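ugh ok fine here u go
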Amino acid sequence: MASADTMTLHVRRLPGVASLARAVQHLAAAVETFGTRSSDALDRIEMEIEPLDIMAWVASQQPGQRTMFRNREGSLEMASLGCLFAAPSLEDARVQRLLEQEPPIFPRMHEPASPFLVTSCVFDADAPITGVWSAFGAMRVSLPLIEVRRMRTVTTLAVHVNGDPSRSLDALRALRQPTSVQRVALRLESDSDPSHWARMVDAALDAIVSRRLDKVVVARTRRYRAVNAIDPMALLMSLRSAANDVFQIAVEAAPGSSFVSITPERLFKRKGRVVHTEAIAGTCPRGPDMAADAWLASRLLASAKNRLEHDLVLERIKAVLVPWSDQLDAEPTPGIVRLAHVQHLMTSVSARMSDDVRDSALLAALHPTPAVCGTPTEAARAFIAAHEGDHRGLYAGVVGLVSASRSDFAVGIRSALVHGDQAVAFGGAGIVRGSEADAEWLETARKMESFDAVS
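structure:
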C-alpha cells in the first residue's frame, strides 16, 4: 500500500449505464490497461449499472470478506467484496490521507464519488477478544476491492486498484451474477439461564442503590442452529422482511465467521459538518392493532422508569456534542419509533460541528452510549465485563461507512454472531431504579424475536 504522505486518489467514471455483466467487462478492460501502478496512487473506477437487489447479489458471491450495509432510511446501500487495505483505526495515516481527498461529482450523482471505508469496532476494545470474535479484531477500517453502491436512485459498480492490478482484476473476473438464495431456517437450541439473569439484575440494582451506577445495560443470548452452514447474507435476507426502518448489516470477517444486525439505533451520521444522532432508550411491546400500539406507547411516554432510562442517554449525547458544535438542536420531547416487535422512545439531535472535528473523535466520544452500556460509562462497562461473562464482540459495537463527504454509523444491536451452522443472538435491557428482572427478561426476549421468526 502507498505511503501515508503521498497516496493520491484518482477517480474515473466510465460513461453510460450498463447491465451488471457488461459493467464488469468494461471495468475489467479498464483495469487491464494498467501496468503495475505506482504505490503512491489509489485508483477508483466506477460505472453506473441497472438497478438490482444488492443483498441478493452479495449473497450470491463466494464467502470470504463480504459486507452489507443498508441505512435505516434506505437512501444508502452498499455491498463489498475483498479488501485492498485494512487499518486498525480511523486515525491511521493512510485512512486520514484518503479522507482528506474529495473527488468530483459526476453527472446524475448527488455527491462526490468518494470511496467508502467499511468500519467496525467492538463494544469493549480493552477486554480480551477470544474465540470466534478474534477474527474481527478490536477495530477494523477497510477499503474493499469491489463494491456495489446505491445512493437514492443511482446504482454503481466500482473497483479499487493500488500497485499490482492483478488482485483487483481477479476479483472482477470472479464476480457472479445474482442467483436465487436459499432461505435460512433456524431452530432454537438453548436459552440463557434465567437464574443467572435474575442475579445479574439484582446486582445491578444493588449498584444503583449504592450510587455506583445510575444505569447499566445487561445482555443475554439465545443460541440457534441450522441444518447447514449459515450464510450471513442469506440470513440477513431472511430477516429483512421484518426489518422495516432499521439498518441491515452483515460483516463477514472470514468464511464461517460473521456478524448480522437489523438495528434501529444510529450512533451518528455526518454530511459535511452537520451531524445527526439520536437517543433511543425505553421499550414497550407492540400491540395487535394500531389502537393497542397507541395505548402501549402512551404508557411508555408516561413511564418514569423508561423516561429516566431515555434521559440518561440524551444528556450524555448533549454533553459530548455541545463543546464541539457551533449549534445544537434537540427535539423537546421524545417520540415513538415502532419496530417489528417493540416500540422505543426516541429523541433526535442535530449539531453543526467545528471544522476540526473528525469522525474518529466523535466515534471515540459517543461510543458506547448509555443506551447499550450505562452511566457512568466506565463503571457500567466494568460491571458488564464482570457479570456477563462472554465478550460482546460487535454486539453493541459499531459498524458504519466513512468517506470524505459523509459517514453513517449504526450500533450493532438486534444482532447475532454467526459461526458455521450456529447463530448466537443477543438481547439487552437497561437497568435503572424500578427495573424488575422478570420484566427485563421478557423485554430481551422480544428483542430477539426476529431470530425466532427465521424458520
